[in-house]
Design a protein that fits this description.
By secondary structure, this protein is an alpha/beta fold. The protein has one domain: Rossmann fold (3-Layer(aba) Sandwich), CATH 3.40.50. It is 41% helix and 14% strand. The protein has eight helices and seven strands, in the order E-H-E-H-E-H-E-H-E-H-E-H-H-E-H. A seven-stranded parallel beta sheet has the order 3-2-1-4-5-6-7, with helices on both faces. It is globular and about 50 Å long. The chain starts with 14 loop residues before the first strand and ends with a helix.
Length: 266
Amino acid sequence: MALRKTGAFSLAGRTAVITGAASGIGAATARTFASAGANLALAWYPADGHDIQPVLRDVESAGAKAVTQEVDVRSPDDIDRVVTRAADTFKSVDIVVANAGIARIEPRPEEVTDAEWGLIMDVNLNGVWRCFRAAIPHMRAQRYGRLLTTTSVSGPIQAWVQHTSYAASKAAIVGLVNSLAVELGPAGITVNAVAPGVVESPQSLDPINSLGPAGVAAQAGLVPVGRVGTPDDVAHAFQYLASEEAGYVNGIVLIVDGGRWLAGSD
């Protein structure tokens, strides 16, 4: 049998919508997808304080075509606009990476208000659903799609104390992925999630709502591979799941944590 030469996990000619694209995992995914040949619609939230322009310069330097859009994932209209813009500009919507998310510290769970709980759910869970919902009609029409999202090891497989709403939102994403994978598979659409462990990013380095620099550094000795993750580690996982080679991978949560959760507690 003759072997077919291919570029590893090429995304050439595909169009990807990525939320949270101005920093961390989202920015790394945008750069990785650009290097793999994808067209990009980069959704970012200016209130986070991160600038999309360096990411845009990098992806265009890699030869990618890209548009940017200010998006609050709590707004269905914002999400519909960026997905429609991707479809109008590039004539398809092949991949969604619903990555935008937030974490807030909750010292005492009984003191968490409905508004505080609702904010985490609206961004981390409902935002994913809104992205998927907006893209599904385009993917059904072309009988091809990759719906991808960022969950976490916190929630689906382990606890994160003082972050109950975050853990609950990330665990709920797994249920969403599982159900949609079965429902949309016959339409040529696969649905998967990546569950990062500790990744050095603006979110994890936040000393108020997350681990902070010292906390992130302390985790390195607990990880079997001897380091914490980078945004690129997660971006490469997304590239695989977004590719045609992953066409038989559906409804999984791909853990990217260096083996940390298998090692147990310190």
